[in-house]
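Priority: low. Protein: Phosphate transport system permease protein. Input follows.
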Amino acid sequence: MTTTTEAAVTAKPKPPQRAGDRWFSGTALAAGSMILVTLAAVAIFLIIQSIPGISATNETASILRSDFWDYVWPLAFGTVWAAILALLMAVPLSVAVALFISHYAPRRLAQTLGYIVDLLAAVPSVVFGLWGILVLAPAVLPVYMWLNTNMGWFPLFSGTVSGTGRTIFTAAIVLAVMVVPIITAICREIFLQTPVLHEEAALALGATRWEMIRMAVFPYGRSGIVSASMLGLGRALGETMAVAMVLSVANVISIQLLTSENPGTIPANIALTFPEAYGTNINVLIATGLILFIVTFAVNAVARWVVDRRKEFSGAN
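Result:
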């Protein structure tokens, strides 16, 4: 009884909540709820509109050769394949550029490079598509010929080289260039937030600058690097115009990087096919959008799990 009374006496009363606090709290809750409502609305729309497309055949939808799954598998494969190739090229380059800006470059040069990286993230995808067609594709063609001649025994570089250079590998390079500014900007801010005491302690123990980065900066920013990479992957998965302009599509499943027979991507296929679609064909295209929605949601969920799993091992804690 005494303990209960003492606890009641020592318990501090809650301060009265002001009207402004209640208004701000309600506004923040409503804004956060709108994200879930919007996501649910998009998912419901895609599911309802996709049902006729998923069950369609070549008799009810003219864009199908047999059934929906035969149509969507090459597109889903091409979407994921191009995004993975782009990420393999973009992540090491982005981390290196972010490290140079945050830990190696002089202050003035670092500020200038930071502005350039931020500006690159704002370049429209159509511009990247034009650059890929007019500049990149002709420039990489001799490299493709060399790879095919000297490394044609490797499945990725086998087959007949495309005469235009508009291959899945060229599209992946364009995607990599597009996502590099996003990943670089996030990694740069994460590296700059590394506690100075951690870096100075490593240097005081005799570590070189690279050893300090490896022991202090990377452990602290590991989860942030994963988050930045997944954000770039999401951009690569959903990119439309640049891929549609660069890629020569044969709608096949192939891992060959240098041939003219390339798998398409879901966003580019929707952009190219939708203007002339009608009837059940529209439902088929919406169903492919549902597949892309599921793939993107799964990628982000896995990234969130990785970040949460590694957070306890991060130097941030």
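The domain at 44-56+63-311 is CATH 1.10.3720.10 (MetI-like fold). The first helix runs from residue 2 to 10.
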